[in-house]
């Protein structure tokens, strides 16, 4: 039964009554609506229908087998209800845990005895004379019937005195706090980091990491980055570099994030989280090909990594991929001081035979002059003179057959 003034589940989820039917349930494809129908039928607000409830649950199992409404709360088993193997395993784990804690405590006790640190003295409570102060206050206080004193009393002056006293007290407190900070942080904390044992460093670094995680959850990435940096300074670890990398990504410091991921991979070469964050930083820094190569490394380690597969599918659409068998060329810079023989770099593909002799023969044919034999007693000098004299006549004949001259040259 539903209380008065309270909506039923049908009214709350706006489901019509005719949907509570075998035919509709068998044909329904909306898993969310089927979940609500099952909850309505289980509640008994509209009546008790066991067959319809079973039909709706069977239909929902086909559509969404991992639905929340199929979850059942299993009671916690006691020690007598456990199997011998499970109980033995639990007891063994507890024994190992207690032994490790005792070992840590012993190491810490030894380290405390070995450390020689001059801590500042413990502050002692000050003795306050409340009785004397109360008497003075009572004596200084003006009574109600002392009219002459009230006439001389200046309220503004008293207010100024109180303000001055408050300011003086504030300055003193700030001065004391600044002195304490300088003494405690600069002179005490840094030597402790150097003298701490490995276990103490791990514990102190863990505290800073937890603080950084809390800041990160509240989207205070700057403070989270500071805490992760302290964690790395105290005890460098893959977890610290990995956490600071994601903080740098959130702060849009992509190059620093890539450096942190590289440091993490030096400690743990197959850290998938560091590889994924490095690929993310490279992609955001517009180095998509490098990000593609990092994602390929992830798939070599874990071929079924869903995040890497989705990222690679997106990158394939954004960047043109190189053809198969392609490789990168290495370009080496030559120092300026070394002299390079450029003649060694010029190598002809083939040697072409000169055509000057054939062209000369063609010109001679066009001009109508056959090659003459040298006359007896004629020197080469006389031949040159004849050639110079006959040049205009040869030029005139050449103009008539210019077309033939051009064709024969270029054949």
The shape, in one word, is extended
Assess the beta-strand content as a share of residues.
Answer: under 5%
Task: Report the mean per-residue pLDDT as an integer.
Answer: 76
Q: What is the total tally of β strands?
A: 0
Low-pLDDT segments? 183-189, 378-411
Output the number of helix runs.
18
CATH superfamily of the domain at 195-318: Tetratricopeptide repeat domain
* Name of the top-level CATH class of the domain at 195-318: Mainly Alpha
Order of helices and strands: HHHHHHHHHHHHHHHHHH
Proper CATH architecture of the domain at 195-318:
Alpha Horseshoe
CATH topology of the domain at 195-318, by name, is Serine Threonine Protein Phosphatase 5, Tetratricopeptide repeat
User: How large, in whole angstroms, is the Cα Rg?
Assistant: 48 Å
Major pleated sheet: none
Task: Name the structural class.
Answer: mainly alpha
Distance between the termini: 110 Å
Helix fraction bin: 55-70%
Structure write-up:
Among the domains are: 17-63, no CATH class; 195-318, Tetratricopeptide repeat domain (Serine Threonine Protein Phosphatase 5, Tetratricopeptide repeat, Alpha Horseshoe), CATH 1.25.40. It is extended. By secondary structure, it is an all-alpha fold. The protein has helices at 9-13, 22-27, 31-43, 50-63, 84-114, 130-140, 147-152, 155-195, 198-217, 221-234, 238-250, 254-267, 272-284, 288-301, 306-318, 356-366, 380-400, 402-410. It is built from 18 helices and no strands. The protein starts with 8 loop residues before the first helix and ends with a helix. 13% of the residues are buried. The model is unreliable at 183-189 and 378-411 (pLDDT under 50).
């Amino acid at each position: 039964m539903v209380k008065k003034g309270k909506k039923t589940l049908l009214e709350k989820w706006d489901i019509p009554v005719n949907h509570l039917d075998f035919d509709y349930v068998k044909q329904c494809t909306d898993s969310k609506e089927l979940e609500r129908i099952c909850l309505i039928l289980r509640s008994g607000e509209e009546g008790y229908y066991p067959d319809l409830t079973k039909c709706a649950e069977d239909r929902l199992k086909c559509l969404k087998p991992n639905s929340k409404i199929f979850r059942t709360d299993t009671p916690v088993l006691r020690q007598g209800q456990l199997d011998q193997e499970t109980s033995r395993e639990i007891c063994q784990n507890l024994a190992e845990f207690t032994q490790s804690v005792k070992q840590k405590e012993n190491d810490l006790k030894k380290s405390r005895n070995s450390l020689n640190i001059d801590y500042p003295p413990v502050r002692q409570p000050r003795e306050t004379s409340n009785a004397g102060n109360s008497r003075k206050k009572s004596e200084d206080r003006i009574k109600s019937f002392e009219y002459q004193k009230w006439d001389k009393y200046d309220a503004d002056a008293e207010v100024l005195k109180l303000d001055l006293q408050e300011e003086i007290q504030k300055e003193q407190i700030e001065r004391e706090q600044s002195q304490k900070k300088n003494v405690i942080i600069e002179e005490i904390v840094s030597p402790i980091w150097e003298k701490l044992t490995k276990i103490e460093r791990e514990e102190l670094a863990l505290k800073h990491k937890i603080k950084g995680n809390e800041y990160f959850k509240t989207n205070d990435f700057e403070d989270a980055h500071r805490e992760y940096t302290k964690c790395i300074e105290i005890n460098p670890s893959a977890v610290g570099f990995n956490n600071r990398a994601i903080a740098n990504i959130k702060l849009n410091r992509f190059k620093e994030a890539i450096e942190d991921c590289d440091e993490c991979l030096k400690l743990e070469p197959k850290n998938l989280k560091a590889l994924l964050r490095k690929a993310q930083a490279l992609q955001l820094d517009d180095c998509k090909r490098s990000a593609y190569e990092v994602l390929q490394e992830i798939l070599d380690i874990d071929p079924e990594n869903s995040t890497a597969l989705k990222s690679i599918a997106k990158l394939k659409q954004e960047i043109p991929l190189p053809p198969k068998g392609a490789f990168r060329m290495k370009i080496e810079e030559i120092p300026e001081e070394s002299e390079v023989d450029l003649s060694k770099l010029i190598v002809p593909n083939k040697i072409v035979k000169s055509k000057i002799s054939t062209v000369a023969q063609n010109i001679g044919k066009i001009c109508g002059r056959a090659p003459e034999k040298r006359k007896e007693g004629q020197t080469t000098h006389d031949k040159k003179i004849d050639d110079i004299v006959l040049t205009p006549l040869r030029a005139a004949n050449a103009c008539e057959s210019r077309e033939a001259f051009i064709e024969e040259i270029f054949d």
